[in-house]
Amino acid sequence: MAELANKYPENVTGTFYVDDQCIDCDLCRETAPANFTRNDDGGHSYVYKQPENDAEAALCKEAMEGCPVEAIGSNGAE
Ligand code: SF4
Question: Is 45 a member of any domain?
């Protein structure tokens, strides 16, 4: 499970975020390219835009559920 305390600082504020367990596998960026992108220097993903509609939210959730190391969290807005 992703830890809010360990999220990367590049994540924009809001519900979804990537934490430091990310292994840069690319799945979230392929699944939800409108919201996830890569930090090329750090070699990991982060959320550059929170979902703005139901379709994007569904893809972010799908990415979260598919992440092999559970590095994506959805409790960032709490
Ligand atoms: S799916 Fe998970 S491990 Fe893969 S790039 Fe995204 S956050 Fe990182």
Answer: yes
pTM check: above 0.85: yes
Whether ligand 1 lies within 6 angstroms of the CB of 69 is answered as: yes
Model confidence pLDDT, tens digit, residues 53-65: 999 999 999 999 9
From ligand 1's centre to the CA of 7, what distance in Å?
A: 13
Residue nearest to atom 4 of ligand 1 (CA): 25
In the chain, which stretches have pLDDT less than 70?
A: 78
**Number of compact structural domains in the chain:** 1
pLDDT at 12: 98
Domain that holds residue 18: 4-73
Residue 9, classified by CB atoms within 10 Å of its CB into exposed (0-12), middle (13-18) or buried (19+), is exposed
- Residues 57 and 36: their CA atoms lie apart, in Å, by 12
